[in-house]
């Protein structure tokens, strides 16, 4: 079973000469699969870019608004809840289609995985297909 949550939001790690006003907020995306938990930080703009990619191919729910009445605590919590609901929409309990492939790529930590010119490298697709569905797109070697 695959579960995705966004348990928290907070300031991005500051760069040495960056003023606090210029800081960005990051959402901690937590993925639980086969008893293993992975957490990756993602900014709102990354969620929006993901939404635009998915929207080109599939009917998706409205994306949580960038404009919030109160940017501080309550506004951030509303945005966190909206993004969590949005991302969970793409992971129904019984995933029978591969429409969530861009979402799986979004949850990968760029510091652990080597970037690829492909939207989602075939080795990752094969691993996910093998883990979720028990089959692969690669020809059998033998």
TrEMBL record:
<keyword id="KW-0653">Protein transport</keyword>
<dbReference type="InterPro" id="IPR036871">
    <property type="entry name" value="PX_dom_sf"/>
</dbReference>
<dbReference type="GO" id="GO:0015031">
    <property type="term" value="P:protein transport"/>
</dbReference>
<keyword id="KW-0813">Transport</keyword>
<dbReference type="InterPro" id="IPR052467">
    <property type="entry name" value="Sorting_nexin_PX-domain"/>
</dbReference>
<comment type="similarity">
    <text>Belongs to the sorting nexin family.</text>
</comment>
<dbReference type="InterPro" id="IPR001683">
    <property type="entry name" value="PX_dom"/>
</dbReference>
<keyword id="KW-0472">Membrane</keyword>
<dbReference type="GO" id="GO:1901981">
    <property type="term" value="F:phosphatidylinositol phosphate binding"/>
</dbReference>
<feature type="region of interest" description="Disordered">
    <location>
        <begin position="1"/>
        <end position="21"/>
    </location>
</feature>
<feature type="domain" description="PX">
    <location>
        <begin position="5"/>
        <end position="114"/>
    </location>
</feature>
<dbReference type="Pfam" id="PF00787">
    <property type="entry name" value="PX"/>
</dbReference>
<protein>
    <submittedName>
        <fullName>Sorting nexin-22</fullName>
    </submittedName>
</protein>
<keyword id="KW-0968">Cytoplasmic vesicle</keyword>
<dbReference type="GO" id="GO:0030659">
    <property type="term" value="C:cytoplasmic vesicle membrane"/>
</dbReference>
<keyword id="KW-0446">Lipid-binding</keyword>
């Amino acid at each position: 079973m695959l579960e995705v949550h966004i348990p928290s939001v907070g300031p991005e790690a500051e760069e040495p000469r960056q003023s606090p006003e210029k800081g960005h907020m990051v959402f901690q995306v937590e993925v639980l699969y086969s008893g293993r938990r992975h957490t990756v930080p993602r900014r709102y703009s990354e969620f929006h870019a993901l939404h635009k990619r998915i929207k080109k191919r599939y009917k998706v729910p409205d994306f949580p608004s960038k404009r919030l009445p109160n940017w501080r605590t309550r506004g951030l919590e509303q945005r966190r809840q909206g993004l969590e609901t949005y991302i969970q929409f793409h992971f129904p309990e019984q995933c029978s289609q591969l429409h969530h492939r861009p979402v799986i790529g979004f949850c990968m930590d760029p510091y652990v995985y080597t970037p690829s010119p492909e939207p989602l490298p075939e080795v990752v697709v094969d691993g996910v297909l093998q883990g979720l569905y028990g089959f692969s797109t690669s020809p059998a070697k033998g």
